[in-house]
Amino acid sequence: GAVVSQHPSWVICKSGTSVKIECRSLDFQATTMFWYRQFPKQSLMLMATSNEGSKATYEQGVEKDKFLINHASLTLSTLTVTSAHPEDSSFYICSAGRTGGDYTFGSGTRLTVV
Amino acid sequence: DAKTTQPPSMDCAEGRAANLPCNHSTISGNEYVYWYRQIHSQGPQYIIHGLKNNETNEMASLIITEDRKSSTLILPHATLRDTAVYYCIVRVAGGSSNTGKLIFGQGTTLQVKP
User: Fold this and answer.
1) Alpha carbon distance B5, A40 (integer Å)
2) At residue A111, does pLDDT exceed 90?
3) Which of A83, B39, B59, B91 has the greatest count of CB atoms below 10 A from its CB?
């Protein structure tokens, strides 16, 4: 079955630093990847849609300069949280879509900013 | 985007069938119904999806009403490991790439009890 690998699974960083999260589709080509954020006891909130070779489309209220998304190949998308602050601490999850209709999610990255 | 309505929580006895309802009264003709579940601190797991016909796979069955305004996910023999948050999602119709984004609601927390 389709596998999406997300790395790292958890990260702790200091306030003001940047953190990069990788999302890879291991056995299929993902023309579109999605990035979500989830706060404790809340549902997943879509942040942006990442298309290979083009600029990401951000949801309303998501700062594109703070959450940099790069989708340079059909198997890799990255999310960089720039100048992280404690309020950016959250569970970040990626998902890859492929022809056929189903979407596969990564295992998530727990970001803690101290 | 069509939205879904699910009960916030449900209980089910281990070994019994779990029937999780979902209302999507504003669904459009070309929008699919997806079901995912999320076990604590993990990425969502795909369960099943359908357009208008009932669907069954190794995990569950999906029953969609004839008018497509509601659906029911059936876990035939629930186990303790099925305890999770279950999300019913109507997929925003994408273009020819068939990769419309998934917007999550609050889901149903299913508690399977011994």
Assistant:
1) 21
2) yes
3) B91
Nearest Cα residue in chain B from A94: B43
Look up residue B69 and give its two tokens: 């305004």
Q: Indicate the pLDDT class of residue A9, thresholds 50, 70 and 90.
A: very high
Q: Does the pLDDT of residue B21 top 80, yes or no?
A: yes
Mutate to test the interface with B, among A29, A34, A105 (most CBs of B within 10 A): A105
Q: Is the pLDDT reported for residue B93 higher than 70?
A: no
The conformation of residue B100, written as its DSSP 8-state character, comes to: P
Instruction: Give the number of other Cβ atoms within 10 Å of residue B2's Cβ.
Output: 16
Distance from CA of B103 to the nearest CA of A (A): 7
Look up residue B22 and give its DSSP letter.
E
Q: Is A45 exposed, middle or buried (0-12, 13-18, 19+ CB in 10 A)?
A: middle
- Chain A hits for B100, CB-CB cut-off 8 Å, are 97
Terminal-residue alpha carbon distance, chain B: 38
CA atoms in the 13 A half-sphere facing the CB of B77: 2
The contacts of residue A63 (CB under 8 Å, 6+ apart) are none
Structure tokens at A1: 């079955």
For residue B40, the one-letter residue type is: H
